[in-house]
Amino acid sequence: MLSKSRVAPELDLLILSFPMHFTWEFLQAPLFRNMRDATHMDGIKICLQATLGDMVIALIAFWVASFFTGTRHWAALPNRWATAAWLSTGLAITVALEFYSTEVAGRWAYDASMPRLPVIGTGLSPLLQWIIVPMLVLWYLRRLSARTA
């Protein structure tokens, strides 16, 4: 009988990713100007919306890596190409969304305390989020698949 992680690796991905991204969103909140004056409930709503967006990015990046590896179960034994595809897709989407949201749509703004990359101006915290959280999730997914094998 197949375990749920073998049937639906995306579900495992989302279950593992959600608390990590949600926590990261709260921790980086002081680095965004619009969060200074937000009420408690508004802050939670903003962080929840951002986390749901992170879930979409995680799924898209996962599916890109799945396309390149030819299997949705690549996280059980990730190789450097699958990991690179996953991370680079997540980073590319993040840079594009951060640019659009801060420079074009004005959906949010960085606080002066947000370290920013030269030239492109993307905040360092959202970029680190798309390196650290996916690597932790990948580590957990690999451990999970080893337990269910």
**Individual helix count:** 5
Give the amount of beta strand, in percent. Answer: under 5%
Morphology: globular
**Helical amount:** 55-70%
Order of helices and strands: HHHHH
Radius of gyration from CA coordinates: 16 Å
Let me know the average pLDDT: 92
Q: Give the number of domains.
A: 1
Spans of at least 5 consecutive residues with low confidence: 1-5
Description:
With 149 residues, this protein is mostly helical. It has one domain. It is built from five helices and no strands. The chain has helices at residues 4-7, 9-28, 40-69, 80-104, 124-148. The radius of gyration is 16 Å and the shape is globular.
Q: What does this entry show, briefly?
A:
With 149 residues, this protein is mainly α. Helix content is 70%, strand content 0%. The chain has one domain (4-148).
Protein topology:
Layout lengths: L3 H4 L1 H20 L11 H30 L10 H25 L19 H25 L1
Defining traits:
70% helix, mainly alpha, disordered N terminus, 5 helices, 149 residues, 0% strand
